[in-house]
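Quick one:
INPUT:
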């Protein structure tokens, strides 16, 4: 088991034949911000993302496109999923594909262990199956079709007809783990979060668990069951194992011990797989369950969850091409309480960009750098005697840093950002009240001007450090403008949990010119986005 300094965080692995939309990017950015935060805090951090490439849905899509499933997956990974990571500045440590040899080989090892230990048996199965979900549907997710599907049973999620499948399959004895799972939820209430997600999972398990069909014999696109190659492994059973195969399970026990267990970020629609099936699988294999499973909410457009079939998905580039990747990252983590559903609108994005990023943070940075340049020939002056207003700024910075770190530890990213933004508001108000441009006109107030501008500059230093996991491009520019690189070293090497310590920006540092961090965007450009 990893020690306390290790932080291993994962996104779900996404179906390759889905087109990446802002919902996928939202999860990626949240995981990336948490990873950057822990990495900069000095923790042994590892961020995993990747793609899920097996299953009947992908087989059918590849066939419809006149190619093999592997060629289809290769094309989509290269053209869609890897470019997404660059578009939104994801600094992942690994990218796993379920077609990787390291994954397929060790899935078979895991499955063989469960079979040898008596947790897998053969049986007959008949049930309604959704190809879109790659899942036999529980009664609660089966509804009567309407319109062209009237008289048929359809998936409540995809609104497409279900298929009645009858197969000889292999089953995982998941029903054996209901009591152990309930005990886990009781003993570790933080295991499933937020609270609404935990309540949903507990309620589901209390209703009783059925054994899980974990193989298919009606198609062959998947990992072969090691003791019966006429079957392939059920795509979800295969996919969930990526979290351990990526960090050495079955082949590098030292790395596995160092990294595992993980924190999983997932959309709430796949919460049950991660908070019920996955820990049961791990218990059966004698492995540690994850640290935490966090089911975040959906991004809604026009009040509905984005859907490929309903053509409501928004590509991340539709936003980043206009507003940039920093604004994308900031907006979704500031505007939405992480864990709850949130509605996206172009109007809200544009308003926050202008008010919070351009006017609030960007203008603050530009003004401070410009005044240091104008009044002190570009050299950060030493502070003289601190007055009550200056000490209050220091207190706000220290509290913001502590509050942000505490919020990040509970994955409350929105609260962390709100805490950091108190520094932006405080510094803007401080400069307005202190009026350094007025102080500069009176030589007798030269020392007071030094203190005010040092206070503002060191406040910017703290902001650059605290915001760097969220808006890495803008903060890197600010760090260079502050001249901090030579004196303090690179921004991503700053001790994040000391960001609130006052006076870390050395007096005498030479600042550099700063272009607008968040340039003005014309209204007609926003409307056309």
């Amino acid at each position: 088991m990893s020690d306390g300094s290790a932080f291993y965080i994962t996104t779900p692995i996404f179906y390759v034949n889905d087109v990446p939309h802002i919902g996928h990017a939202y999860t990626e950015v949240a995981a990336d911000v948490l990873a950057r935060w822990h990495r900069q805090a000095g923790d042994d951090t590892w961020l995993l993302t990747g793609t899920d490439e097996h299953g009947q849905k992908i087989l059918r899509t590849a066939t419809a496109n006149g190619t093999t499933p592997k060629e289809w997956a290769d094309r989509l990974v290269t053209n869609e999923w890897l470019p997404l990571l660059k578009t939104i500045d994801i600094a992942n440590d690994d990218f796993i594909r379920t077609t990787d040899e390291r994954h397929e080989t060790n899935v078979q090892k895991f499955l063989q262990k469960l079979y040898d230990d008596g947790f897998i048996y053969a049986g007959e199965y008949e049930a309604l199956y959704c190809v879109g979900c790659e899942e036999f549907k529980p009664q609660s997710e089966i509804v009567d079709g309407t319109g062209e599907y009237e008289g048929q049973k359809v998936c409540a999620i995809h609104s497409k007809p279900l298929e009645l499948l009858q197969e000889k399959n292999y089953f995982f004895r998941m029903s054996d783990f209901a009591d152990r799972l309930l005990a886990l939820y009781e003993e570790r209430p933080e295991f499933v979060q937020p609270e609404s997600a935990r309540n949903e999972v507990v309620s589901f398990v209390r209703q009783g668990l059925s054994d899980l069909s974990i193989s298919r014999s009606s198609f062959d696109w998947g990992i072969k069951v090691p003791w019966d190659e006429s079957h392939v492994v059920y795509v979800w059973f295969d996919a969930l194992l990526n979290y351990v195969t990526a960090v050495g399970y079955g082949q590098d026990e030292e790395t596995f011990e160092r990294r595992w267990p993980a924190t999983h970020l997932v959309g709430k629609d796949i919460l049950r797989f991660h908070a019920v099936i996955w820990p049961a699988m791990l218990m059966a294999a004698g492995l540690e369950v994850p640290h935490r499973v966090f089911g975040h909410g959906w991004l809604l457009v026009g009040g509905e969850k984005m859907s490929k079939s309903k053509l409501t998905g928004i590509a991340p580039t539709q936003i980043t091409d206009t507003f940039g990747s920093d604004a994308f990252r900031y907006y979704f983590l500031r505007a939405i309480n992480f864990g709850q559903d949130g509605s996206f609108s172009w109007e809200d994005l544009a308003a926050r960009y202008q008010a919070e990023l351009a006017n609030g943070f960007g203008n603050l940075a530009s003004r401070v750098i410009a005044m240091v340049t104008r009044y002190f020939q570009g050299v950060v002056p030493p502070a003289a005697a601190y007055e009550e207003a200056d000490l209050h700024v220091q207190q706000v910075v220290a509290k913001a840093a502590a509050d942000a770190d505490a919020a990040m530890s509970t994955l409350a990213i929105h609260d962390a950002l709100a805490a950091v933004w108190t520094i932006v508001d405080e510094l803007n108000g401080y400069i307005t009240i202190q009026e350094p441009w007025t102080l500069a006109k009176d030589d007798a107030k030269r020392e007071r001007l030094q203190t005010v501008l040092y206070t503002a500059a060191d406040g910017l230093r703290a902001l650059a450090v605290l915001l760097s996991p969220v808006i890495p491009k803008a903060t890197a520019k600010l760090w260079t403008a502050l001249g901090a690189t030579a004196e303090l070293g690179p921004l991503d090497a700053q001790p994040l949990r000391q960001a609130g310590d006052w006076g870390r920006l050395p007096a005498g540092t030479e600042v550099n010119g700063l272009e607008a961090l968040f340039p003005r965007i014309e209204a007609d450009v926003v409307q056309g986005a």
